[in-house]
Amino acid sequence: MARKPRLPARLYLILVVVLTYLPIAVVVLFSFNSSKLPVAWKGFTLDWYRQLFRDRALMQALGNSLLLGVASSFFAAVIGTLGAMGMVRVHYRSKGMMEYLSTLPIMLPEIILGMVFMAFFALLRLPFGWTTLILAHTAFSIPYVYLMVKARLSGIDRSLEEAARDLGAGPARTFFDITLPLIVPAVLSGSLLAFAMSFDDVVISIFVTGPTLSTLPIKVYTHLKTGVTPEINALCTVILGVVVLVLTLSFLLRTRREGSHPSNKEEVP
Amino acid sequence: MKKDRSWLLLAPMYAFTLVFVLGPVIYMAAVSLAHHTAAGFTWQLSLENFRKMADPVYLQCFRQSLLLAFLTTVICVGVGYPFGYIMARLSPRGKRAMMLLIMIPFWTSSLIRLYGWQILLQARGPLNGALLALGIVSKPVKILYTYPAVLIGMVYALLPFMQLAVYNSVEKLDWTLVEAARDLGAGPVRAFLTVTLKLTLPGLMSGVILTFVPSMGLFFISDLLGGNKIVLVGSLIQDQLTRGSNWPFAAALALVLAVITTLLLALYRRVTHTAELEVMF
Question: A267 φ, ψ to 5°?
Fold first, then answer.
């Protein structure tokens, strides 16, 4: 067993974490500042939050991003999970090539992916907008689900499925009763990661979106280029609040579950 | 035996990947050989786009991107390896708390976090205020819109990948091997270099790739923190596409960037003898 880290080592971790949170803290702080410029503290206000919820364009962009994230991570979850299940079963000669190709979207710098999507969609004469956004986001989301589910599947005893089949269960029943419950955590964490990537993506979205459709990161990017209003700070604070709430709840739930079953060895996602 | 229908499971992914990933990449490779005209491009085979890249301006751009990517990666290793290593030795509770602390910023918009750095680094910002108050400098120093600012932004955006990749691989390490090395007379440094480092190499290497590859193309970081002074290949491609509308040249630039990336991945497989990147998160 490894020795527990000593005090200086722990202090190092804390230092890095504090530095990580510094810019976030600044953004949150200035969302409550009554001055429009983020240089000096002029007093507490909630005005920016009021303005934020009245800003139709920004709210629309937020809605678009949520919808896009849900749609693309859903398609990625279906395609990626099926792909992972297929990949562990077959032995084609083209398998290695296919594995390389299916992870290619996360191996290429985003800028390249963005430009090839744009050029290709223009070639196919697809209308730039929802179709192109969802296609592009699904394409770069598949690898996250695929890799996660495949890693989980390779740790699963295949004889469980075979036993179910021997006992007379059809392929569908075997999938829903045996395989799916075993891989659900991996499918979920893969799709969550895909959602996070989609929700935060600016590079690829800029290339494939249409003239009238804007996602939240695109909107934020334009604001940052042309001049930020503290509304953006307020929006970030709201999103941060939701994220902290959700992640902390899942953390606490997991800790509690483990507390009641001390023998449960937990897997870090 | 019944006919194997497993290929049906693979079919959607094969189809999607071939049409929407391989298709676009091949198309881009073809466009890079086309001839640029005022109206767009014509299918006239030429190497003009690649020859154009030999121009010192563009070579400088590649050099700058590679240097920035290199420095970013080195700093991420320097900061992230010890972090992942120490984190993997915390108690299970500590590990999960630390994982939570890393995941929260990851879920917040990366653009907003860069904006936080813009505020921190500006001439009248908190950092300069602190430096002035401590008497380290006598008047505000310019940090925002300089090379170091871009480097800070890059390291900041990519560090979590290194932290998690190293963490995952140290977490899986069999510590009895390290103990055995120590029992056999190896000092702590030697035991680390010959056992720990060697066994965690796949994690380290995937961290290196996950920081190096994106840092070549994250144009919005140099855009927001570097002003217009640092032109990366990424910004150049975007510029060629939007303002210059020179698609063949942009495609050629992207192709060269993709080749560099692929070569690095091949090197990764060679060095670590692994076919896949360490799965993270």
Answer: -100, 130
Q: How far is CA B234 from CA A10, A18, A210, in A?
A: 38, 30, 21
pLDDT mean over B180-186: 86
Q: What is the pLDDT of residue A106?
A: 80
* Minimum-distance CB partner of B89 among A2, A111, A216: A2
Task: Answer whether B27 sits within 8 Å of A109, measured CB to CB.
Answer: no
Q: String of b and e for A115-151 (b: at least 16 CB within 10 Å)?
A: bbbbbbbeeeeeebeeebbbbbbbbbbbbbbbbbbbe
Cβ atoms of A9 and B106 within 8 Å: the answer is: no
Higher pLDDT, A64 or B223: A64
E strand or H helix that includes residue A61:
helix A56-87
CA distances from B137 to A192, B126, B147, B149, B225 (A): 45, 14, 19, 18, 22
**pTM higher than 0.90 for the full model?**
no
* Cα distances (angstroms) measured from residue B127 to each of A20, A137, B124, B134: 15, 37, 8, 11
> CB under 8 Å to A258, separation ≥6 — which residues?
A264, A266
Q: Does A50 touch chain B (CB under 8 A)?
A: no
Rounded Cα–Cα distance for residues A111 and A13 (Å): 32
Q: Is B162 on the interface with A (CB under 8 A)?
A: no
Contact A232 B112 (CB under 8 A): yes
* pLDDT > 70? residue B172: yes
Tokens of residue B55, six digits:
């121009």
B interface test, pick of A116, A147, A250 with most B CB neighbours within 10 Å:
A116
The interface residues of chain B toward chain A in range 36-55, judged by CB-CB distance below 8 A, are: none
pLDDT at A169 over 70: yes
Mean pLDDT, to the nearest integer, of A6-26? 92
Residue in chain B closest to A136 (alpha carbons) equals B20
Give the 3-state secondary structure of residue A34.
coil
Q: What is the pLDDT of residues B185-215, one digit of tens each?
A: 888 888 888 888 888 888 888 888 888 888 8
Tens digits of per-residue pLDDT, A108-167? 888 889 989 998 998 999 999 999 999 999 999 999 899 889 888 887 888 888 888 888
What backbone torsions phi and psi does residue A45 show, to the nearest 5 degrees? Answer: -150, 155
Q: Which residue in A20, A29, A133, A140 sits closest to A80, CA to CA?
A: A140
Phi, psi of B35 (to 5 degrees): -105, 130
